[in-house]
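can u pls check wat happens w/ thymidine-5'-diphospho-beta-D-xylose
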Amino acid sequence: MTLSIKKFLVTGGAGFIGGNFVAKVLSEEIGKVLVLDKLTYAGHRATLRSWEGSPAYRFVQGDIGDRQLVQQLFQEFQPNYIVNFAAESHVDRSIESADDFVETNIVGTYVLVDEALSYWQGLSGDEARSFRFHHISTDEVYGSLGATGYFTEQTPYAPNSPYSASKAASDHLVRAYHRTHQLPATISNCSNNYGSYQFPEKLIPLALLNALEDKPVPVYGDGLNIRDWLYVEDHCEAILQVLAHGQPGETYNVGGRCEMTNLDLLHTLFQCLKDQADLIREHTDYCIDVDYASLINFVPDRPGHDRRYAIDTGKIQRELGWTPRENLRTGLAKTVTWYVTHLDWCREVLKDNYDRRRLGSAKRTVSDP
Ligand code: NAD
Ligand code: TDX
């Protein structure tokens, strides 16, 4: 895609989608990037290592809720685009405690959008006209679908987890800053992403590592919950299209047009592992004669587990010409190759952070803090 060289302030750029977005902007020489990231358990400098030393890239460790820091970075860097990926992103963790979700997703987004307004009001001419604040959100704000139908941009919000409720609140704040103050803001609500650099707490990387290590793969409930899977690089391209051609005040739904039950997804993943047995043999000590399907381990369901998500991508397709390039087979094949050849990254990000145990499995009781 074509954009004149721009300055992108990317929050949450050391995370999964943000890291892929930074890689796209820098490798395709679309712009300069300043990453602001708190480096929580989910954010890692290792994800951005290839860019260290590049004159087009700068990293600052900090919180989007730190008003003084945010103000200072806006003034120093003078971004054309602010892209807000920073968030607590894991539903299971939000079941254990929603504190960080409220703090970052709601309060942090409020501080960021509020400071973006002051910054934008200080711009003039073309700089002011072309400035965009883009907020990354999720299809989970729409709640759960029955057997039929799709989420459109008109679907009423009905979030069911503390995570999706906090994302819904942040979407409302961004939208309100456009309606009330005319801040040129856009929002995208995307379905489940997969690809390189995803922290191994989410279904695909967790199942992939467990299967490689011949460990049980936990499947919540009956495994028939449906998600709409999108390869992360397709999501990053959609974001660039929204920045370049999206209308301020608009929301764009982004999805893979790839609905799958969790069980079907896992069987497809296992087939990809089988297909890449030679690569696994070459890069690891793991046994490749594993009956991966036998590792499936049904465990108690996630409380409040949404049954089905499916995105109608008609608007972004019609108005911005975006469609996903990868299908699940090609995207998963790339993902398996990436993880098998980046097990050092997995070890580094998991170390002292997360042992891949089940999170958020039980409803909280009165005695819980
Ligand atoms: P992630 O958990 O991998 O990364 C989040 C990043 O934000 C981390 O680098 C973390 O350190 C950083 N961060 C957290 N709190 C911060 C704070 N207070 N200040 C600054 N940085 C902070 O998440 P992800 O999967 O890359 O998701 C990115 C965004 O996309 C999120 O807003 C998420 O809600 C949204 N989203 C994710 C998916 C998905 O499938 N992963 C789908 C749709 C939307
Ligand atoms: O071990 C598991 N077993 C399992 O059956 C895990 C981690 C998940 N699941 C199920 C729950 C979901 O139905 O797999 C499905 C996918 O789960 P996650 O990977 O946790 O993703 P999900 O809860 O669908 O949310 C993701 O997509 C939307 C991201 O984490 C969100 O940030 C994004 O907004």
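Residues 89-91, 138, 140, 192, 202-203, 206, 218-220, 225, 227, 262, 302 surround thymidine-5'-diphospho-beta-D-xylose (ligand 2) (CB under 6 Å).
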